[in-house]
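Two entries, shown back to back:
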Amino acid sequence: MNNEISQVEKTATVVIRKIWDAILDDVFKPGEWLPEVDLAARFKVSRSPIREALQALENEGTVTMEPYKGAIVKPLSPKEALDIAELRLALINLAAKPAHRHLSLADFELAYGLAKQITRSNRAKEHFELNRQFWNIFFGKIDRPILWDMFRRLEDRSIRYVPLILKLFPDPATRPRQRELLIEFYRKGEVDDAVRAFKKIYLEVVHRIIEHLETEEPANSSR
């Protein structure tokens, strides 16, 4: 019995990853229904791990479960985008000075290389994975595991926004460089300036997202 439960949990974890990938690839779009039977057929698994996966995705804020209807990829929201941004910035601010004391020259080089790759990437899945590696360097250097856990949860919740960010900023040459600026100031020991520079550009990105979503909402409601 325990082996069966373990197998369902393991398969559910794989399904979660596949649903994330489909969202990042813009196959499953915000507001789109995810019927259990369709997901089971698509991923070639039974409906038990599908239900487990959808429950976990609802808990993290990626999908919404509606009684008698099923799961839907949670629509993008201006308020949610701002809430995620403000919480991320608060966590970055808490980790900035402790992390700087423990980062090596090799860490700075690795983080800067990842930041440049993120700026150049035109694929949402790659963008997300590189971004997680970038912040793992930052948060991994401090003995504050709860901060990293909370930050990762926010990153998981923001998966739905990554394809939109790449659509709003399609040209890598003019794409916002907040992570690169963070490291450029950071490696010089200018921690407060690094956080300020990151915050300024990051909030410009977030407000662009919010403006887009607020423009979309009236158009959608009039259809």
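entry 2 starts here
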Amino acid sequence: METTQKAAVTHSDDLSLYGLFSLFIKNWLTLCICGFSVAIIALVWAVQQPNIYKAETVLMPITDDKGGLGALAGNLGGLASMAGIGMGDSGNDNTKLAMQLIKSRAFIAEFIETNNLLVPIMAAENWDIKSNTLTLNEKLYDVKSNRWIRNYKAPQKQTPSMLEAHGMFLKMLTVEVEPKTKFVKIAIEFYSPEMAADWLIKFVEQLNNTIRQIDIDEANRSIEYLEKLIATSQVSGLQAVFSSLMEEQIKSKMLAEVRTDYVFKVVDPAIAPEQKSKPQRALIIIIAGFLGGILGLVIILYRSGKQSYLARSIR
């Protein structure tokens, strides 16, 4: 009877906070070994990871009405709609369209093809800071023969598709919109800081040029259509209206052709970063050491529970 009471008291002490604290103090060596072991493994892994650099740019959306189209739409909106001429809030529409294009498959595929970025996006694995050159994965791309040699499974092909490149590029691309100012921050992360900055500059330029070309094409179609209406209309009043509409379309086209920053004005241009953004090796080691300590606690509790169970079984 007395032995049973002592065992109950001992078991109660083991479950108390003081009992747990004493247990961990007695097994401090296990905690240290687990924590340091996992931290060392994380250190070895983190050192082997390549540095990633982030180039950033800040853009301001341009939302004007392109030379008075909005004002004209207030007076002649009904006739413009009947003629099939869009005269709404084109600035805001262009900004919304640009935000959708930024991550679209067609736009990114065109950007990759135009700048010949398929190889660095899909095959690069590091950057040599001394020679300022990319290190390509030899299992994916043969530099000597300039051809892809990767292993693949159907429906994939040996040469990566633009769909694959689109997915990889999205992992490098970050787009953020400031809720109050509506400013847009775009960032590209890559092994080479110079290439990241250069890609980002070209990315913004192509985005502006793409929207510009869409508006120019639309203005050309509108002008051509209005010319036909003027030629076929027998009412002098309608001819004057159509002429005013055509004049505004010509102004819109002219502004599109001469304006450099068409949809987004660059507030803070992209430059090559000097400090890496990833990996955060110190944070990785600290978290790994913490997780190793937790593993040590689990091991200690498991051993203690097993010993208590065996002791009760013997009694």
